[in-house]
Write a structure and sequence with these properties.
Layout: E1 8-14, E2 19-21, E3 27-35, E4 38-40, E5 45-51, E6 60-65, E7 69-74, E8 84-91, E9 98-106
Parallel strand pairs: 2-9
Antiparallel strand pairs: 1-3, 3-4, 3-7, 5-8, 6-7, 8-9
Length: 110
């Protein structure tokens, strides 16, 4: 019998929709790491935030990040309404394993 090689994947979950209010509270997002489809708790991710083209973003910030949980807050600027930022969760031990989540910045007045 052969051994099964590890095959890791990462997902990001959150409550509600993938959007945050401009100037509003930070949104909590959680990473889940899977090995061959089974969730494992002993792997960590590194969080990063960028514009959709990969450049550094000034539209939102990661306000806190722990092993599998991060909080993202949008800067208060009406110019950023309906723009997107890209949140990436990368498996700490293997940077080829990651997931990107596009987060829409929306008006708090809508």
């Amino acid at each position: 019998a052969g051994s099964i090689q590890p095959s890791y994947s990462v997902t990001i979950t959150f409550t509600g929709s993938a959007q945050i209010y401009v100037g509003g509270n930070a949104k909590t997002l959680t990473a889940h790491v899977f090995n061959n489809g089974i969730e494992v708790a002993d792997k960590l991710v590194t969080w990063s935030l960028s514009n959709q083209n990969g450049s550094t973003t000034a539209m939102a910030n990661i306000t806190s990040a722990t092993d599998l949980i991060c909080k993202v807050q949008a800067v208060k600027s009406n110019a950023n309404i309906n723009q997107y930022v890209l949140l990436r969760a990368t498996l700490s031990e293997n940077t080829t394993v990651f997931v990107d989540l596009a987060i829409k910045l929306v008006s708090a007045l809508s």
